[in-house]
Amino acid sequence: MQFKQDFFEQLEGFYSQVYPLPISNPHWLGWSDDAAQLIGLEKPNAELLMQLSANYAAPGASYYAQVYSGHQFGGYTPRLGDGRSIILGEAIGPNGAWDVALKGGGPTPYSRQGDGRAVMRSAVREFLVSEALAALNVPTSRALAVIGSDLPVWRESQETAAITVRLAKSHIRFGHFEYFCHGEQGDTGKLSQLVNFTIKQHFAHLSTDAAGYKQWFYEIVQSTAKMIAHWQSVGFAHGVMNTDNMSILGDTFDFGPFAFLDTFKEGFICNHSDHEGRYAFGQQPAVGLWNLKRLAQALTPIIESDDLIAALNTYQSELVKQYLRLMRGKLGLHQAASLHALNSQDLSAKPLSQEAQAELDKHDLQLLGLFTVLLETNQLDYTNSLRRFGQLDPSHSHSTLRDDMVDVAGFDTWYKAYQDRVGEVADIHGWQCERNSVNPKYILRNYLAQEAIIDIEENGDNSKLLQLQQLLRRPYDEQPEMEDFAKRPPDWGQGLIMSCSS
Ligand SMILES: Nc1ncnc2c1ncn2[C@@H]1O[C@H](COP(=O)(O)OP(=O)(O)OP(=O)(O)O)[C@@H](O)[C@H]1O
Ligand SMILES: [Mg+2]
């Protein structure tokens, strides 16, 4: 790894230097060749294992924990910071630099009561989901590796420690800006310094003046909306959308009690501690905006309120636009048609007038909403139901989706509207292939991750983890020998809810 140290060198006072503590008997549990390529690495080796388990120093690394604060479950905590994630620096890759962090690398000045460690089960989940989301084209931080150990750590019972080696284009979170705005550390000089650094490093096309700041916040609103549209389209519930877990780049970040939906349920809660469903699946779009408002608040010392509000006002429409784009692909709804043109089967794609586009969007949102209501009332699996569109011929009145329904009459009404909307499909094979290229067959179901974890815990065997990793690298491909992994969970694995202790 070849490091540069821009954050460390340019932002003194924004972190504490701290050395990670080694974990004993380190061993690779998982390694990602795809992530390794991002920072110009090839295969794992013994030297690297010792460096990434903090047994040896990594040449060129600086080792620091960043300070930030954040709104957790709606309440403001004035100081959080990296309590168990220690950053080595920015590793230079062929297409840009990536922060390398040891998550679970030991205590830092921000650990409060925590031990600075991560347990194996949570490290493995973070590793797997980083791989899975990347393969689904969802913006995300990455994981280079997960390293097991025999170091005991205590949660509800004794477990063993592990380290996830996280790669992120940046570790800067909404909470960083909150920290330098609010409370006794409130310091406009430092706030501007951080904004300027962020723009120079990650929004290099923007200037660091009033116009640049305004555009910068607008782009954050847009990328956050886009990320959440992705989550809703693949059925991903994050679980802990605190502002300290929101990346300034709109990358999915901090994987704790996350889950992919099995049975579709708008109100699905994956976090055991989320008693009120603040971060329920269907709440995520609204929470995204709430979090952006907290960021906007923190930026009021340096960006005009009117500009912040104008940007916030674009969130909803961007989220809907992105969600429609993704879901139209999944269901095969032709984008460039107007309702009127559909009725006359005139698909010659003239650009739509604004009103026609708005009418079409409203129509499609309704159609999609009714579809998810059908999934929920019939208790159907989200991923598997969408995958069925790849076998569907919309010109036929029969569809395998219908066979899944209990409310057949409700489905028939919906399906008629769907057929009308899709219209005639000239090349049905091509149409079906397109559906299969955007509707995954394989997702990281919680119970699959759980099975891999149990095998490591009980038998020290990581082969299930490796198998899952390979499977999830190609989520859209038929992998006939892996058919079982696409099934709905067994009874014990239905709606698994994860605790926050990790
Ligand atoms: N075992 C631990 N020891 C020390 N601090 C911890 C521990 N677990 C969590 N924290 C700290 O508690 C706060 C909230 O934790 P949260 O679960 O959001 O983050 P995380 O998963 O530890 O890390 P990240 O957000 O970097 O992915 C953070 O400041 C985090 O560093
Ligand atoms: Mg966190």
From TrEMBL:
Keywords: ATP-binding, Magnesium, Manganese, Metal-binding, Nucleotide-binding, Nucleotidyltransferase, Transferase. The active site is at D244. The keyword RNA-binding does not apply. It is an enzyme of class 2 (transferase). One of its GO terms (molecular function) is manganese ion binding. The keyword Transferase applies. Mg(2+) binds at N245, D254. Its EC number is 2.7.7.-, 2.7.7.108. ATP binds at G81, G83, R84, K103, D115, G116, R166, R173, D254. Pfam families: SelO. It catalyses: L-seryl-[protein] + ATP = 3-O-(5'-adenylyl)-L-seryl-[protein] + diphosphate; L-histidyl-[protein] + UTP = N(tele)-(5'-uridylyl)-L-histidyl-[protein] + diphosphate; L-seryl-[protein] + UTP = O-(5'-uridylyl)-L-seryl-[protein] + diphosphate; L-threonyl-[protein] + ATP = 3-O-(5'-adenylyl)-L-threonyl-[protein] + diphosphate. Its cofactor is Mg(2+); Mn(2+). PANTHER family: PROTEIN ADENYLYLTRANSFERASE SELO, MITOCHONDRIAL. NCBIfam families: PRK00029.1. Belongs to the SELO family. Nucleotidyltransferase involved in the post-translational modification of proteins. It can catalyze the addition of adenosine monophosphate (AMP) or uridine monophosphate (UMP) to a protein, resulting in modifications known as AMPylation and UMPylation. This is Protein nucleotidyltransferase YdiU. It comes from Shewanella psychromarinicola. The gene is ydiU.
